[in-house]
# Entry
Amino acid sequence: MMHLHQHLIALVVLAVVLPAQDLTEAAKPPEYWPGTKWETVDPAVVGLDATKLAAARKHVFAHKSTSFLVLRKGRIVLEAYGKGGGREVPRGIASATKSMTSILVGMAIDRGKLRMDQSIAAYLPSWQDTDKAAITLRHLLSMTSGLKPLKKAQRRPPGDQFIHNASMSVEARPGGLWKYNTPAYHMLFRIIETATEMELAEWTREHLLAPLGMKGSAWNTRQSGQFTNYFNLSCTARDMGRFGLFVMRGGRWGDAQLVSKKFFASATTPSQQRNPAYGLLFWLNAKKGHSAGGRRLAYRFPGAPRDLVACLGKGGQQILAIPSQDLVIVRQGDKPADPAFAQRLVRLVLSSIKGGGFPGEPETGGKPSAKEIMQRFDVDADDKLSKKEFGASSFGSRRPKAFAQFDTDGDGFLSVGELAKFVERRRRGR
# Structure
């Protein structure tokens, strides 16, 4: 009887303990992935302040935007369209395509069709036994090929884009210089096609667009005789949001790891030390580095989490993924008038996170300090304002001669101290 009594006690304990464990698992919300339809939720449901999100929306559409999308926990919390935009309207995303191409290369590597450190000369007999034979796939992906970029007028050749771009001259040893080089990047299109024995559009559709449900996306191409020259993808804002969600979750879609964790980690961490703000065709906020134009930066997005990963294109096309905040931000449109547009947008959206502690912008009717003005207009985050940055501000555009007046050391920049004197003079009405 004693044994039976002990068994009954054990069963009672299990009945009490096990349901509690099951409840703990059940309380964990399942990860959300959009199907053919998206779930849209009130910002408050996912911990965002709707009023502060509205300030971000106002900022976006004050600067020539056509589309604006914010995802939290995979769900849409803000979706808005301006003139020229619409839910079903695709738009060329310019160099934001580079990050998608990086993933397409990674998928080919995962399948053994490419190797990171293989010479590009394998696809170009004319490069063999030359200085260019040292250029590898990794160099093209990290913008360290050492090739001298073609001028913009030369980037739409009448014939074969691949051969045309391969003719670029060498200005540095491979790996010895970081320089943003779009024509060198374009060479990846033919390399993917040759290695996979599939057209780029087909490889993209099968391995990226279809799995992610990016039905409103397609390559922009130009036919030059017998050659199809690829340039960039056109995407709807929601398709860009899908890619942002895919990036935020480490190259995964649902239960499928579409690109290996190894490649994804390489793509979204500093690829070299000459510009640690750049991975493999992804912009990073992990370390200080350079802009595409070569200007020295502090962080790409000052004040934002270090795990922010960005896909950026000309005219302000952007997909921003912030895993630590379970946040994706998408913007499409024409070039913003504010040179600090993207940095301000990120700050405004982050400030909407309840309890997040992220500062927003100064109140519109208030009087910002010199430090706040510096943070707002210091595009390259070097703690000083250039004449161009000063001129882009509302007060600078109204008083262009003030720059020379307050640049007391004549170095061509305004320090916080010099800016403080300007602010003080303004407040006195002088």
About this structure: The first strand starts at residue 65 and ends at 72. Residues 2-27 form the longest helix (26 residues). The radius of gyration is 25 Å. Residues 37 and 213 are 10 Å apart (CA to CA).
